[in-house]
Amino acid sequence: METAKKISFRQKNVTVCPICSYEFHREELLSGGGRLIAGKLTDELRRLYEESKKFGNLNPLYYYLTVCPKCFYSAFPRDFDAIEPSEAEKIRELTSARKGAVQKFFGSINFNDERNLELGAASYMLSVDCYGYRNKKVAPTFKKALSSIRAAWLFSDLGKAYPDKPYRQISQFFYKKAYQYYIVVLDLIQTGAEPVEAMGSLGPDADKNWGYDGILYISAILTVKIGSKDPDVKKRVENLEKCKRYLSKVFGIGKTSKSRPSDLLDKIKDLYDKINKMIEEWGQETAEIKEE
Predict the structure, then answer these.
(1) Model confidence at 150, in pLDDT bands (50, 70, 90)?
(2) Distance CA 142, CA 276 (A)
(3) What are residue 15's phi and psi, to 5 degrees?
């Protein structure tokens, strides 16, 4: 019966940490067998999963990052070993700081244990930090953006599970980071300052690669949710006008295709309408301020 409930396995090949030389076996999620029951898609393109009676609450996001259990170096698998000596040295120097941050928010956790919500959230928090010291060849800004929004999701889940702990505030912190990084990513893609091919799956979740369209949409919705809180009303309107240009120009409101499925198009239309209403409301506020 225990075998039937197995949800993951350890790779046979040893992974050697390029930072501290610790050897460990990476954990992988098993697929099939009713382990994952896909639920709805949120307005942030996050795939929710229903609880399985047999396997409990599972989320593929817990497993996507490789984390060294000894020094807490974290990266996407394709980047874990591809690290320059100077980068490795900097990340090595900050090992105590990384471990201290994890200790502060989670207490004592062990990345040799089976992945769960706490380890998943911690893995993305660590990833945002570690990619801050990586070179542009691995597209670190995008990796920080992707890690930030996933961290925001998982810390939000933790906030629901443990309302007495500061996880909701941490989730909001990572939402703000995601907003800042995604706006920069748009410019980097257009200028080629960081290679698109190094980004891998553009997410934002793991079940579907929404491509460049997804990056534009996430940038827009984060602008609505985070950027619209700017105390400067004029700045809010400018941010939203920029979002409108992204959505209308690149997506083509009303146009569908295989790469732009109807479920994404519906979300774009809803967001576009919401932006128009917000611009109209705040445009009136701006006019009233000028009259005063």
Answers:
(1) very high
(2) 28
(3) -100, 130
